[in-house]
Design goal:
single chain, disordered N terminus, 3 strands, globular, three-stranded mixed beta sheet, mainly alpha
Length: about 325
């Protein structure tokens, strides 16, 4: 069975299109759109998790269960199902918008090409899952959970509108990597509200764990953005923000900083309970991200994308096993 790096060699840039528009006789604006398409080779088996938008729902589900367990709350099945459906709908809608109207200088990868080719089926699934999400919210969730989900839903809609239809300077004010990471982490905490009640005495450590998980999610988004950047220095200056270039050069140190902070928080919270387990899982995930960054030259962007999400899932699964 071929490795990730070997199987991903068939997924390379297919076309580069340059569109030129003249504003005046002495002024010419050149807009370059890079489109990554699939070759005739089939999609590797390991990439389907990402292509079908199943990676983000998996991360959300596993970490939500872990944070619930650390907060000494039982998992509410309807809330977890609603979370998975909501994450899938949001991520698939974002990819459909990316494939439908690519932004200037943006790179459309395998996941976007797949969504563009199968947009009718995926749009139908969006409507079905969206209806199921509404039904679950009306019939199976507590009012506090519904309110939290609605607030996050409004934030997500505003974010998508700003990214796909808003001015380009918005991303300079609020980098999307940080925004997506924090919103995603906030969404994983919504199921905690499905069963109202008093928090355990060490609830402030749970809040800290949720914030650290937000940093981990932002690190994940930032890493993927850096790994999927053009390899050419010239193209990097055309398509990237200055702070992304800085983060790219210091990504390993950033990951190690998140890992160290989570490790210290874990030791501080180790006072007879089990609150240290989520912190150690966050630290392990950040270390795995740092290791992947060290191997970035040996792996394709598609392989790095899959492994980046796997680096978030595996430590959380191991932590859940420790609770049992």
């Amino acid at each position: 069975m071929s490795s990730l790096s070997e199987a991903s060699r068939g997924l390379q840039p297919a076309t580069v299109r340059t569109l030129t528009r003249t504003h005046s006789p002495d002024q010419t604006a050149i807009v370059t759109i890079h489109v990554r398409q699939l070759h005739s080779a089939p999609i590797p088996w390991w990439l389907w998790w990402n292509v079908l938008s199943l990676d983000a729902p998996t991360v959300a589900c596993v970490w939500s269960l872990l944070l619930l367990r650390a907060g000494k709350r039982t998992a509410h099945l309807q809330a977890i199902v609603a979370l998975v459906l909501a994450v899938w709908v949001i991520y698939t809608a974002d990819r459909l918008l990316d494939g439908l109207a690519p932004r200037s200088g943006s790179f459309l990868r395998t996941r976007h090409s797949f969504c563009a080719r199968h947009r009718f089926v995926l749009t139908s699934l969006l409507l079905i899952f969206g209806a199921a999400l509404i039904w679950i919210g009306m019939e199976g969730l507590e009012a506090t959970t519904v309110r939290g989900g609605l607030i996050l839903g409004v934030i997500v809609v505003l974010y998508l509108a700003s990214i796909h239809a808003g001015p380009a300077r918005f991303s300079r004010l609020l980098p999307k990597e940080i925004a997506v990471g924090m919103i995603f982490a906030a969404g994983t905490t919504v199921p905690l509200l499905s069963k109202p009640g008093r928090f355990p005495p060490q609830s402030h450590y749970w809040v800290l764990a949720a914030l650290m998980f937000g940093l981990l999610c932002s690190l994940n988004c930032l890493s993927i953005e850096c790994w999927e950047r053009p390899s050419s220095i010239r193209e990097q200056h055309k398509t990237g923000l200055p702070w992304i270039a800085w983060a790219d050069a210091h990504l390993g140190a950033i990951a190690l900083g998140v890992a160290t902070a989570a490790l210290l928080a874990g030791f501080l919270s180790a006072c007879g309970g089990a609150m240290e387990i989520p912190f150690f899982a966050i630290s392990s995930a950040a270390l795995l991200t740092a290791m992947l960054n060290g191997q970035r030259r040996k792996l394709s962007p598609e392989a790095l994308r899959v492994l980046a999400d796997a680096a978030l899932v595996l430590p959380a699964l191991a932590a859940l096993l420790l609770f049992h």
